[in-house]
Amino acid sequence: MPKPVKRIWNAVSWLLVLILVAMAILLAGVRIVGLTPYAVLSGSMEPAYHVGALIYVKDADPSEIQVGDPITFLLNEDLTVATHRVIQVDSENQYFYTKGDANEYPDGAPVHFNNLIGKPVFTIPYLGYLSNWVTNPPGMYIGIALAVVIIILLFLPDLLQKAEEADRRDAEKKRAAGKQHADGNPPGDHISQPKETDRDPHTPNT
Question: Which of 48, 72, 95, 171 could anchor a disulfide with 117, C-beta 3.0 to 4.6 Å?
């Protein structure tokens, strides 16, 4: 592979790797620092959280929640997750009353303190579409396949270079062997010539 092509290939491959690593961190790696990403699938919290955005939620104690805070919580027994804004706190009975910013009316049922997941910290627009796609088939399988292809592309130039060097060494060996055969001396055969002497040491002087 020509050097200019190899340099471009390596640059593109490393760029793809960096994008892959960045996506892995944004979609899963943030859990290491206590953040859990959730995709926004409805417009109930527009314009604070747009449809398709990815919100990052940090664990919170119910005592930290105040009126006006957005919270992420379990909506029902099916473990559906929602994010709405708190409009009232009933500390005595341990309930939050919530409402979506874009909704006309408050939510029909209050949120028990035990169903609180946390508070959204920040959001990234449109990343929720990607998160939702790669966490469900067939996007999950396509994502894994793309990751494997990118890794192969990263190491492909080196593999091709090693293959070319091996082919070049084999060609040189064949040329050297062919030249020796053409000269009449097969490789490894050495013909010794007898030394000439002026006289036979076993012949007596006359």
Answer: 72
